[in-house]
Amino acid sequence: KPIYVGTSNCLSEVYSLDYFRNYENHFEGHFVLYKHKTLPFEVQVIYQRCYQVHGTCNCGAAVKAGDSVFVVDRCERDIRDQPIFGREEERRYSPPMKTFAYVWDGEFTPGIRILSKSGGKKYIVYLSTGTKITIEQTYGHFINVYVTGGAGDFDNTEGLCGTFNDNPQDELMMRDGTIYRGPGSDRGGQPKAFSQEWRVPESERIFGGVSKTGWRPPMVCECHEQEDNNPCGYDYITEHCDQIEEGTKDITDRLPIVNMESFQGDVPMQVPMMMRMRVRRQAVDYNSTDWEGPIK
């Protein structure tokens, strides 16, 4: 049965994949925005307090595809170059937007494509399933993150983006598969318990890379009748995406990378100190003072 995915968009503010309208996440810290239930695909985001308002905005995003992680980072820092969670007056500086990637064996997991647009103000990531993640610069030091589901995501997603299955009634799904129906679960509300459910513990954060698994996506082929040599490839679904996205450049092979098996060596200076320390396996507390917003 064909699956129509033309409106399966999720925005990090948050608008869910099945358009359960919007709800608000007023917590700072690391959260799962999108995660595939059976494939090693995931998008984690970092929220910091917005300027002059009692809410949070997105400042960082990490896209995991197999053993590889692509990071966009605009988060404010303290003097140790670590993201700040807390009162605005405790902030130290806002670094320029940084983009880099963690890989194993010097190369990306097959099937991922990373495109740049608008002079580096917008990045588009395609996964081997056709899932599209758009990360774009917005005001101040913040970013917007959009996830557009592909056919391979149908009935296989979880996180703040909810479940992509054309059923807007089950968007607030908890990790155990139950649906949150408590305070704030109405449209436009603040489902605090649901948001906290998808907070990422330090041991599961991907902003410092991931362990090696050797996973590879399934090979995809275009089959034609009465032909023996049908084209196949890991990225066959996404290989022409740069032609679809006008004005983009494929930067997959030009990004600064951290080669995880040689983490004791020199790490690119484009990588924030927090990340470089993480790669060297030093103990770093990413999130010791999470600010929980004005609503207790």
TrEMBL record:
InterPro entries: VWF_type-D (IPR001846). Residues 4-207 form the VWFD domain. Pfam families: VWD. This is VWFD domain-containing protein. It comes from Owenia fusiformis.
